[in-house]
Amino acid sequence: GTREAAFVYAISSAGVAFAVTRACSSGELDKCGCDRTVQGGSPQGFQWSGCSDNIAYGVAFSQSFVDIRERSKGASSNRALMNLHNNEAGRKAILNNMRVECKCHGVSGSCEFKTCWKAMPPFRKVGNVLKEKFDGATEVEQSEIGSTKVLVPKNSQFKPHTDEDLVYLDSSPDFCDHDLKNGVLGTSGRQCNKTSKAIDGCELMC
């Protein structure tokens, strides 16, 4: 359970929630549509209208579809707890970055009144949020609070992680070295730019 695995689980879970929500809004699924709970006026003075993304349905589908593998094995093992946590962190990356989009109405382009709806962020934004969480992921270990098994920071001096953070159990292998046991091909023989500090630079590659 490395930090790379944490990222893969998080972005996969987010991807399912995102795709299902988008399909709901597009009318591609029979069982869901726009979010009808977002209606009426708002404290900001605009009118809720249009098709708000039904993120609640997308998240619920992701929870039932993506999490089932871990829950079927019993969600008490270290790895199951880690995967379930990161699945939820992926969904939170969408939920916590929902935005309000609006359209103006009025004569000659004036904005006499606005209608607005809730929309998901672009998936690129979700990926960027999770990349930041990947960079700051917390190494954890299992502990017990009463009879409940939980994950806590391995280093007790670190602050506890939140539902939005990624967590991992194992240190990552050195991806620069050839290690077929862990499926790592290494970077030997790959071309890189010795003077570049960007993604093609040798320092960034290894």
From TrEMBL:
SMART domains reported for this sequence: WNT1
Pfam families: wnt
GO biological process: canonical Wnt signaling pathway; cell fate commitment; neuron differentiation
Keywords: Developmental protein, Disulfide bond, Extracellular matrix, Glycoprotein, Lipoprotein, Secreted, Wnt signaling pathway
Molecular function GO terms recorded: cytokine activity; frizzled binding
GO cellular component term, pick one: extracellular space
Compartments (UniProt record): Secreted, Extracellular space, Extracellular matrix
Domain of life: Eukaryota
Keyword Secreted among UniProt keywords: yes
Function: Ligand for members of the frizzled family of seven transmembrane receptors.
Cited PANTHER family: PROTEIN WNT-4, WNT RELATED
Family: Belongs to the Wnt family.
Protein name in the entry: Protein Wnt
